[in-house]
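Dear colleagues,

As part of the handover before I leave the project, I'm documenting each prediction I ran so the next person doesn't have to rerun anything. This entry is a single chain, and its sequence is reproduced below.
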Amino acid sequence: MDWLFKLLTDPNSVAHIVLLYSFVIAAGVLLGKIKFFGISLGVTFVLFVGILMGHFGLNVNTEVLHFMRDFGLILFVFCIGLQVGPSFFSSFKKGGMTMNMLAASIVLLNIAVALGLFYALNGRVQLPMIVGILSGAVTNTPGLGAAQEALNQLQASGIIHEVPKIALGYAVAYPLGVVGIIGAIILIRFIFRIDFAKEEAEWNAVADDNQNKPRLMHLEVNNSAVFGKKISDVMNTAGCAFVVSRILKNEKVSIPSSETVLEEGNQIFVVCSEGDADTIISLIGKEVFVNWEELDSPMVSRRVLVTKSEMNGKKLGQLKLRNLYGVNVTRINRSGVDLFANPNLVLQVGDRVTVVGSQDAVERVATVMGNSMKRLNEPNIVTIFIGILFGILFGSLPFAFPGMPTPVKLGLAGGPLVVAIIIGRFGYKFNLVTYTTQSANLMLREIGITLFLASVGIGAGGEFFKTVVEGDGLLWVGCGFLITFIPLIIVGSIARKIFKINYFMLMGLIAGSNTDPPALAYSNQVSSSDAPGVGYSTVYPLVMFLRVLSAQLIILMFM
């Protein structure tokens, strides 16, 4: 039985390390599926299983523990950045600016409450532990990793001799943090007497008024002002872009070009932006019903998948598909959203392009663009590791600020996050294919976060129960709840009262400002619309960046 004892207890044994991590992660993920009062803590249970194993003396070699923790964190934040990168900058447009301002206010108030409690308690809770409690209270794991990275920098500089186990504060504050976020959502509902049906109707009215979604129309040319004019001339007169994918002239269907002349009675199939539809109808003619499928036509309409890396980053107009192949592109589907096929639209791997033309021509275009699901499913590992490489280099750059004991570094959490956001948004300009399937991104992300949480839990487990039972554990819980609840009620009330934010959007804003999937899951259960998801994704990128950066800055500025 010596082999079994060694397998279970030797912290330097590879078999023991793999066994322990496998058990902690598997048990944590399974327990995370259990719901308490309709709320699930998800993969966070991995942290608590790790703490339990650490409490019973099951440990891992320190160097291996730190490697697993840091590598897991890098994987997690990089995949997050890659996912949110395309929407990071666009989230500031229109109503997104207000939403992000409110979310940033929540982050600042969280910090203000945390520092206020630190000074009010007069040193009873040390600053690093307050930061750990703050990270748990706002359910932000990368913030915890960033704070630990900052403490490691201070230790390396000789400013502190030992790195405090701030994961204890995180673990204590996290469960009530989840409850506090959902509690704030519910309380705001009762304070403002929210009518769900009314909010749903208002959201649907706004969502339907999408001026940029494609509009498909069958028009008959009956305005004498355009008789005998080329399509390009009509487009210039209209002052907006549109695509004529098919034309019925003299009982014959053909693919028109910009030089095609419109004549009275021609019937055309037009694709344009929703906001331009009325202008085009008034200029060309009324809508009519045309069953193109019943016409004796060799034309086909097919969705082609962009999978060749050479297509990545090219503008649609650069391909000259009409001149070279005699086809028209009417719209492009990206991540489930239909986009109008503007000539200036930049193609990305993973786009689905709707092509109209003869069977042979469409087949040739499909070959040019790739149209291979197998190729699309192949992982783009090069982009991931190039991004991690430059992320670590960028995170290691020191930025000196007056009054700080050591230069600020974005570290292993902030560096890869920033680089991933940039690659996700602008990678195509450097011929980097940033497309990954949602399942692949989620798999890497979950592996990363579970490795991180397991490592943090195992490392903190030896002192956790002693700290909670004999120390200030209950005080930490109280501090965490105040850090969670106060900012959400203040900003949530302002968002509703002053900015008139739709309640379902506000639910997503609150969940996103705390990067809290359980709160988003609750919001989605309450609402049948996609408003919570829209609110969540609008503020998530900025909030994640602020959480990671602020956790480090608090440590470096106030230690």
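The chain has a mean pLDDT of 81. Residues 271 and 389 are 43 Å apart (CA to CA).

All the best with the project,
I.
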